[in-house]
Amino acid sequence: MEVRARAPGKIILAGEHAVVHGSAAVAAAIDLYTYVSLRFPTPEDNNDALQVQFKDVDLEFSWPVGKLKEVLPELGSKSASTPSSCSLETTKAIASLVDELNLAESKLGLASGISAFLWLYTSIHGDKPAKVVVNSELPLGCGLGSSAALCVALSAALLSLSDSLKLDFSHQGWQTFGDSELDLVNKWAFEGEKIIHGRPSGIDNTVSTFGNMIKFRSGELTRIKTNMPLKMLVTNTQVGRNTKALVSGVSERAVRHGSAMSSVFKAVDSISNEVAAIIQSPVSDDLAITEKEEKLGELMEMNQGLLQCMGVSHATIETVIKTTLKYKLATKLTGAGGGGCVVTLLPARILFVCAIYSFSGTVVDKVIAELEECGFQCLIAGIGGRGMEISFSGFSS
Ligand SMILES: Nc1ncnc2c1ncn2[C@@H]1O[C@H](COP(=O)(O)OP(=O)(O)OP(=O)(O)O)[C@@H](O)[C@H]1O
Ligand SMILES: C[C@@](O)(CCO)CC(=O)[O-]
Ligand SMILES: [Mg+2]
């Protein structure tokens, strides 16, 4: 039997970075997924190794289970139903396994993802041989939550073939979990994110697990019911960056300028709360939608100003902002910044025209053409969609 799990990426509408320091943030799942499939070998397979294939980065690894037993000090001592953090001793042991892979210089950034994989796999399934395949529709390391989607999909796949969840294996197609199972997936995924991000707030794994739109503050999730159709243009500046380094850069600035940065975080908290309130407030007519969109756009611009204050903007992000501003569209970075992706609010009045002319000759068409001329990549993502789901195959009753 094989299980396939998928978990979505996300955009952050307001509050990235500040959320690590206790402010509220608002995030939405997007309809681009990371997939993880997991299969345990049958005796005929004669496979005594843990094999993983990361298709997006063209890497494949295999560890004989004997090697895992020899190197990992706490192997077999964890319980899948009790998520725990990676100890210093195990962190070192995993680092030695990853070092032995001799990753090329250009792929060193992937070491944290491989480490998270090894930690989650061995914590939940010990030294059981298996074949795992990972592939994603998300650009990696670009602010759309690829690390969280990986950790959530992996935790979901691993837990669904563990004894800690009782699932209906005969169900056809994608199925989701109940809230307590989702909570378990989310907690394990957070442990994986800790390995990749250093100090994650938990917003990315939470929105990827539960889907839709959420407000998140100090580890607490509030589900947001949207009363307005929200569409965003996502522009990938294609400038690579690393969330862990950006998060620690903001923390260092907060240490150097404690009082100023706490005012910045407080301002972001107010912005996120206002964004959540606007999205949830009832909509009476088209005029109300336009008013709400104007307010949202203004709040996004204010949030971007504060992100610049935190030191996480980038010349390419400023170029996207200037370009979209020519068309009176509001833009902010999303995720950790420093390059990566930027979101631009597409107001309903513009989308209405796009629907008539199927984008040709519309403002959206023009702005995308201009952005792509700068070497950026654009996509219009569906937001506020499904969270993590699993699907079984090869089950015979
Ligand atoms: N499909 C994947 N295959 C292999 N590794 C992956 C995959 N998805 C994510 N990763 C790991 O996650 C890292 C990227 O995580 P990072 O947090 O820096 O960016 P992000 O999650 O895309 O953006 P943000 O955190 O700003 O939303 C990669 O370098 C890799 O280690
Ligand atoms: C930059 C950050 O706020 C969001 C990354 O998508 C980090 C985090 O909250 O873990
Ligand atoms: Mg990430």
Automatic annotation (TrEMBL):
<dbReference type="InterPro" id="IPR006203">
    <property type="entry name" value="GHMP_knse_ATP-bd_CS"/>
</dbReference>
<comment type="pathway">
    <text>Isoprenoid biosynthesis; isopentenyl diphosphate biosynthesis via mevalonate pathway; isopentenyl diphosphate from (R)-mevalonate: step 1/3.</text>
</comment>
<comment type="similarity">
    <text>Belongs to the GHMP kinase family. Mevalonate kinase subfamily.</text>
</comment>
<dbReference type="InterPro" id="IPR020568">
    <property type="entry name" value="Ribosomal_Su5_D2-typ_SF"/>
</dbReference>
<dbReference type="GO" id="GO:0046872">
    <property type="term" value="F:metal ion binding"/>
</dbReference>
<dbReference type="InterPro" id="IPR006204">
    <property type="entry name" value="GHMP_kinase_N_dom"/>
</dbReference>
<dbReference type="InterPro" id="IPR036554">
    <property type="entry name" value="GHMP_kinase_C_sf"/>
</dbReference>
<keyword id="KW-0443">Lipid metabolism</keyword>
<keyword id="KW-0808">Transferase</keyword>
<dbReference type="Pfam" id="PF08544">
    <property type="entry name" value="GHMP_kinases_C"/>
</dbReference>
<keyword id="KW-0067">ATP-binding</keyword>
<keyword id="KW-0479">Metal-binding</keyword>
<feature type="domain" description="GHMP kinase C-terminal">
    <location>
        <begin position="294"/>
        <end position="346"/>
    </location>
</feature>
<dbReference type="Pfam" id="PF00288">
    <property type="entry name" value="GHMP_kinases_N"/>
</dbReference>
<dbReference type="GO" id="GO:0004496">
    <property type="term" value="F:mevalonate kinase activity"/>
</dbReference>
<dbReference type="InterPro" id="IPR006205">
    <property type="entry name" value="Mev_gal_kin"/>
</dbReference>
<keyword id="KW-0444">Lipid biosynthesis</keyword>
<keyword id="KW-0756">Sterol biosynthesis</keyword>
<dbReference type="InterPro" id="IPR013750">
    <property type="entry name" value="GHMP_kinase_C_dom"/>
</dbReference>
<keyword id="KW-1207">Sterol metabolism</keyword>
<dbReference type="InterPro" id="IPR014721">
    <property type="entry name" value="Ribsml_uS5_D2-typ_fold_subgr"/>
</dbReference>
<keyword id="KW-0753">Steroid metabolism</keyword>
<keyword id="KW-0418">Kinase</keyword>
<dbReference type="GO" id="GO:0016126">
    <property type="term" value="P:sterol biosynthetic process"/>
</dbReference>
<protein>
    <recommendedName>
        <fullName>Mevalonate kinase</fullName>
        <ecNumber>2.7.1.36</ecNumber>
    </recommendedName>
</protein>
<keyword id="KW-0963">Cytoplasm</keyword>
<dbReference type="GO" id="GO:0019287">
    <property type="term" value="P:isopentenyl diphosphate biosynthetic process, mevalonate pathway"/>
</dbReference>
<keyword id="KW-0547">Nucleotide-binding</keyword>
<feature type="domain" description="GHMP kinase N-terminal">
    <location>
        <begin position="125"/>
        <end position="211"/>
    </location>
</feature>
<dbReference type="GO" id="GO:0005829">
    <property type="term" value="C:cytosol"/>
</dbReference>
<dbReference type="GO" id="GO:0005524">
    <property type="term" value="F:ATP binding"/>
</dbReference>
<keyword id="KW-0460">Magnesium</keyword>
<keyword id="KW-0752">Steroid biosynthesis</keyword>
